[in-house]
Amino acid sequence: MTCFAQFNITGRVIDKRYKTPILNAKVFLTDDTARYKTNDDGAFTIPNVKPGEYTLVITSADYETYANSWHVYDNNVSLPDINLLGVDELDVVNNKYNKVAIATLLFLRKYF
User: Fold this and answer.
1) CATH code, domain with 62
2) H or E segment to which residue 37 belongs
3) CA distances for 87 relative to 7, 47, 61, 90, 100, angstroms
4) Domain range enclosing 16
5) Is 34 part of a structural domain of the chain?
6) Is 80 exceeded by the pLDDT of residue 94?
7) If you write DSSP's letter for every residue of 54-106 in order, what string do you get?
């Protein structure tokens, strides 16, 4: 009989701009069918994780989607706060990048 140790992954999901907890965000590992949610403090726990490498995904309707790889060795994993930008803020960031890109293209077209 083979026995595998299992551990917990814990963390907290925070609004990057306002530094407030994001509650009811969906949290899961890509190769697992179980789904979890953040609590009122933005905290979550994924229990019974075997050692290995996993991609942690966090989604919430009004925020960017988070996906990052984490390795579970032989102990519980306590993640640093995960900061998410609101979707409206992403539009502002993307718009700034688009304006810079357009200005760069116009400059290159004019001088080259």
Assistant:
1) 2.60.40.1120
2) strand 36-37
3) 33, 29, 8, 5, 20
4) 7-86
5) yes
6) no
7) EEEEEE-TTBPPEEEEEEE-SS-EEPPPEEE-BHHHHHHHHHHHHHHHHHHHH
Question: Pairing between strand 77-78 and 43-49?
Answer: unpaired
Residue 92 pLDDT > 90, yes or no? no
**Torsion angles phi and psi, residue 89, rounded to 5:** -70, -35
- What would you report as the CA-atom Rg of the chain, rounded to the nearest whole angstrom? 19
Whether residue 98 is contained in a domain is answered as no
pLDDT, tens only, 8-28? 999 999 999 999 999 999 999
Q: For residue range 35-48, what is the model confidence (pLDDT) as tens digits?
A: 999 999 999 999 99
Give the separation between CA 81 and CA 64, rounded to whole angstroms.
15
pLDDT confidence tier of residue 81, bands split at 50, 70 and 90: very high
- What secondary structure letter does DSSP report for 21? B
Question: Could you tell me if residue 109 is inside a domain?
Answer: no
67 within a domain of the structure (yes/no): yes
Count structural domains, the chain.
1
